[in-house]
Amino acid sequence: MTTEQTELGRFLRIRRAGVRPADVGLPAGAGTRRTPGLRREELAALAGVSIDYYTRLERGKETRPSPAVVDALAGALGLDDEEREFLRALAAQAARRAPVPPSPPSRQVRPTVTQLLEALRPNPAYVLSRTNDLLAANPAGFHLLPGLAEWPARQRNTIRYTFLHPAARALWPDWEQKARGCVAHLRAVAGSDPDAPDLAAIIGELIVKSPDFSRLWDRYEVRRMGDGEKVFRHPAVGTMTLAHESLELTRTDGQRLVVYMAAPGTADYDAVVLLDMAAFAGPDSSPDSAPSEPGRSNPH
After folding, report:
1. Which of 120, 134, 182, 280 has the fewest CB atoms within 10 Å, i.e. the most exposed one?
2. Does domain 111-174+222-296 match CATH 3.30.450.180?
């Protein structure tokens, strides 16, 4: 049984368990249900496939569901557009005869993007890889996450920071929501390129080192990071609420430009200006610099 088949079956099984009969207009029935969500036969009926066929899908014995079947299952499970695309990607992976060797994504940031980061000051901004490695940042963006500068450049990853840095839980008042978004993003990336070494490395590390990551990973939530608002309790400038945008960069193997903003004339904007000034004046304002103390290079 291949990894892709297992992932497809596991996703179907977990999401089926999360759908209550009442959610899809089915009676709960008499007696105690053995499963917290839909039974296999109920989901098969809703999707218009046989129970035997659906069972083989969950068990990884059927690896080539048609696009129509995948869409029917997505509809029966109540998946949104992003989750539906994830299910399609898992089905495509399961249908492969042999995995295609992935090429490592580029970590090179174009000079024009670096110039854009500087032009966005004082707004904190940085460039992330598809797995959230920090590839470039302006001063405020680099110091938006307290203590990240103490890690070696190759270890600076915003998802690793969320789960493994001791300052992270104090930085975000709603840490659980932030953490769920990080895991859901990695799940979405895994749907399109599950064999990628960079993806396997960060997921494997966090499963081993963070029980919270392992718990959330098993929920199979899927969501790519986008726009919204975040509250920061920053030790240098205090509490600030910032809007943010996440913009895909072209021809960059999944790199994203993330920008945090506040309206001029507000206390939040004043905090952003202070962060930019403090970060730019600091001794370590370059995202490519090594930690100032070798003894502090281990984030764990």
Report:
1. 280
2. yes
